[in-house]
Design goal:
By secondary structure, the chain is of the alpha/beta class. The protein has 13 helices and 14 strands. The strands form 4 sheets. The protein has a 5-stranded parallel sheet with strand order 12-11-10-13-14, with helices on both faces. The protein has a 4-stranded parallel sheet with strand order 8-7-6-9. Helix 5 crosses helix 8, helix 7 runs parallel beside helix 8 and helix 7 crosses helix 9. It binds FE3-S4 cluster.
């Protein structure tokens, strides 16, 4: 494995124990995947932020790292935490305290507490061809597929290590030859709304691995690509191509790859799996975090029942004085999955995201109604 002077110094312990540990983790990863070198990255997106998902063990590990006084070597942003500290919602007090400690610890390492899974809406916007180390699966697939940046799906630990060292092992989706489509998906039914995209992504994500290439007549909105990607990433998919839309779709031949035709049956099955109730306590949108268009969609719908909209703090700030409807709660820094929602009196939830439906059922034990925003708001 080729190492430069910077890395050799780190391994000799000249940059501190924490940095040495981070580089050792990257070298082990490189060895596992036969990577011959480490390559510089332009940004990192760190997961493992909510106290709900990392617990006390994760917090103690982070504190140990931060005590070594190390700082990240690349612009780095954080995934959603479990709390919006500025919200009127009542988060459990002990949880809030632990969450504050986690964010302070990351901040001490020089990581920006952006607390969003859409870092590309919040200033961490990689260019096409940039190598990055992102850990949030929905952001990874968006970066690879829609932005044309190059990242593997890092774990919380490997993304943090890459942020500290400023490099990642060169393997997987960092190499052009591994970004070619492996499955041609012909969609034989009309896709009408965002939930249809989510159901399609969920079906493929749960049943196939590799890199799907979608041939669909409908032209998606950018938000639909985000929803589709997040649903694909509930399985092992970290990149997709969309005919005539995504930037690398025309770079590879598709005539010899496996082909699958999907009809109404497969999508209906996905809807069935993602639905477990008809009545819900609240509707929650913004998985991944809502962008401007999706927030405007909710405002325009003028909901007569409570809708929690999860977004990044910059968009919450932008919209906070522009919403008159008291049923709309704008919440930043967290989401319906990584907040302790099940301890806040919520037992059932309506969502238009397959990822939110999947994890609300499996992580938070909530009853779920999955459908488009328009249908969820129908009385
Ligand atoms: Fe983001 Fe939470 Fe969904 S982190 S992708 S809104 S599960």
């Amino acid at each position: 494995m080729e190492l430069g002077k910077h890395e050799r110094d780190i391994l000799k312990g000249r940059k501190g124990e924490g940095m040495k540990k981070a580089l050792e983790i990257l070298i082990i990863l490189a060895e596992i995947h036969n990577a011959k070198r480490l390559i510089p990255i332009t940004s990192a997106q760190i997961s493992g932020v909510s106290y709900k998902t990392i617990g006390d063990a994760g917090l103690e590990f982070l504190k140990d790292m931060a005590e070594a006084e190390i700082k990240v070597n690349t612009p780095s942003t954080l995934n959603p935490a479990g709390v919006d500290f500025t919200s009127e919602l009542k988060f459990p007090e002990d949880f809030v305290e632990k969450q504050r400690e986690i964010i302070d610890t990351y901040t001490k390492m020089g990581i920006l507490p952006s607390c969003t899974c859409t870092p590309y809406y919040a200033g961490n916007l990689p260019r096409m061809g940039d190598h990055i180390a992102w850990a949030e699966s929905s952001a990874v697939i968006y970066a690879n597929s829609v932005l044309g940046a190059m990242t593997n799906r890092e774990s919380a630990l490997s993304a943090l290590s890459a942020a500290l060292v400023g490099k990642v092992p060169d393997y997987g989706l960092h190499m052009k030859e591994n970004r070619a489509p492996t499955l041609l998906v012909e969609v034989e039914y009309p896709i009408i709304n965002e939930a249809d995209y989510a159901a399609l992504g969920y079906h493929i994500g749960q049943n196939y691995e590799g890199i799907p290439y979608f041939r669909i007549r409908k032209k998606p909105r950018a938000e639909d690509l985000k929803t589709l990607g997040a649903a694909l990433a509930t399985g092992q998919v970290s990149m997709f191509h969309y005919h005539n839309i995504t930037p690398e779709a025309s770079h590879y031949p598709i005539d010899k790859i496996e082909k699958v035709e999907l009809g109404q049956k497969e999508v209906s099955e996905a809807y069935e799996k993602l639905n477990s109730t008809e009545d819900v306590d609240i509707i929650a949108v913004g998985c991944p975090h809502a962008g401007i268009t999706e927030i405007l969609d909710v405002i325009k719908a003028d909901p007569k029942r409570e809708v929690w909209v999860f977004t990044s703090k910059n968009l919450k700030e932008l919209f906070k004085d522009r919403i008159d409807n008291e049923n709309i709660k704008l919440i930043a820094d967290t989401c319906m999955v990584v907040s302790p929602i099940e301890k806040m009196g919520i037992k059932s939830i309506g969502v238009n995201s397959a990822k939110a439906a999947f994890y609300s059922m499996n992580l938070s034990n909530l009853k779920v109604k999955f459908d488009s925003l328009e249908n969820l708001l129908k009385e």
